[in-house]
């Protein structure tokens, strides 16, 4: 029978795993056969994206999934299991793990995932992974918001050029143009005198 300190340590791990399942998004992975170099490369990329990645004991994870009501995950907790979770970007674990799953598909497999208190199948995790990163989404949104303003500027420029004034011409040149035109215009002829009666 395990000692009291070992039981306390395991209880603490289960509490931590329960907290991760409640508050973060994550992906469960079967990583059997991955080399040390491949694992190191992947961990560096995950760390850069602020994704926590760790190997988990299936027996301890079983207690955690029961605590949060993810009982359907019990069937995936066999063999080697690791977990990638993130608090910052909910898509990051799925996106990065999918990249490496495609790269090492013979021995690195997505088992399942979770997000916002919902269990995701491997197919749903793969679909989620196709969503661009948050900075890319923000740039796309900004581009969409600025597009009407840019179009309006083009239309106004075209309208100004069609009206005779170049939109690129300096303000002074357009202001002096009417005076120059008036100076070059022929003087009006004096009206003919009416015949004397």
Describe this structure in words.
By secondary structure, the protein is of the alpha+beta class. It has helices spanning 4-23, 36-48, 58-68, 92-103, 122-129, 134-162, 171-184; strands spanning 25-30, 52-55, 82-86, 109-115, 118-121. It has a five-stranded antiparallel beta sheet, with helices on both faces. A hairpin with a 2-residue loop joins β4 and β5. The termini are far apart.
Characterize the biggest β-sheet.
5 strands, antiparallel
What portion of the residues fall into strands of 2 or more residues?
5-15%
Summarize the amount of helix as a percent range. 40-55%
Q: What's the overall geometry?
A: elongated
The DSSP helix count reads 7
Taking Cα atoms only, what radius of gyration do you get, to the nearest Å?
Answer: 35 Å
> What is the number of strand segments?
5
What are the secondary-structure elements, in order, as H or E?
HEHEHEHEEHHH
Tell me the strand order in the biggest sheet: 2-3-1-4-5
| Poorly predicted sequence stretches spanning 5 or more consecutive residues | 173-183
* pLDDT averaged over residues: 80
How are the elements arranged and paired?
Blueprint: H1 4-23, E1 25-30, H2 36-48, E2 52-55, H3 58-68, E3 82-86, H4 92-103, E4 109-115, E5 118-121, H5 122-129, H6 134-162, H7 171-184
Antiparallel strand pairs: 1-3, 1-4, 2-3, 4-5
């Amino acid at each position: 029978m395990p000692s009291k300190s070992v039981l306390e340590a395991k209880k603490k791990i289960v509490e931590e795993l329960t907290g991760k399942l409640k508050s973060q998004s994550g992906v469960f992975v079967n990583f059997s056969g991955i080399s040390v170099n491949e694992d190191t490369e992947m961990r560096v990329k995950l760390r850069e994206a602020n994704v926590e990645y760790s190997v988990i004991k299936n027996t301890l994870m079983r207690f955690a999934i029961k605590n949060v009501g993810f009982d359907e995950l019990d069937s995936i907790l066999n063999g080697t299991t690791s977990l990638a979770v993130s608090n910052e970007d909910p898509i990051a674990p799925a996106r990065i793990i999918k990249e490496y799953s495609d790269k090492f598909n013979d021995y690195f497999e997505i088992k399942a995932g979770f997000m916002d208190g919902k269990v995701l199948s491997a197919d749903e995790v793969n679909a989620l992974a196709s969503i661009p990163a948050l900075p890319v989404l923000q740039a796309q949104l900004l581009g969409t918001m600025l597009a009407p303003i840019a179009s309006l500027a083009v239309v106004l420029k075209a309208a100004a050029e069609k009206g005779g004034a170049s939109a690129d011409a300096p303000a002074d040149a357009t202001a002096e143009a009417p005076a120059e035109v008036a100076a070059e215009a022929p003087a009006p002829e004096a009206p003919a005198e009416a015949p004397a009666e």
